[in-house]
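Typical record is below.
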Amino acid sequence: MLLVDIDFCSLADLDDIYAIEEAAHGHPWPYEIIESDLRHKTGQIFYIGARWNGVLCGFGACRREKSSLKIMNLAVHPDFRRNKIGTQLLIAMGEIGIRLGCKRATLEVRITNYAAQLLYEELGFRRIKVIPHYYEDSEDAFLMESPLPFPAISVATKNNGTHL
């Protein structure tokens, strides 16, 4: 496990975010969407970055939707995978949701993305339903949901007496 520094991203991180997005996803978000989010939606859409020795190695994007935290994107550069960076980013997004007053987190995941599904399930997400043809290439998605704080984090903090 690599313990990374997690902070909010800015427009200065755009090229690094997009490089990770391209490396991590077969169907990356368009550059212009990420740029617009970072430029115009500060305080509405939150981009957080994971940095290892000052290098951006992963990011997450989320926003509040009523009493839910919508996790919009999560990407870790392939060179940094299997180091619990995705878990650290999800926990940080969960903390953002709690501070925004959210009671649950939701996300969509490709039905063929088994590694991501396992990561989400480890934190307490469960599959709610299948969304047919959700992605541009017509692949279906699972809608997944978890209460906030994440159940796995709540249990861990109760067991060792610490609080996040």
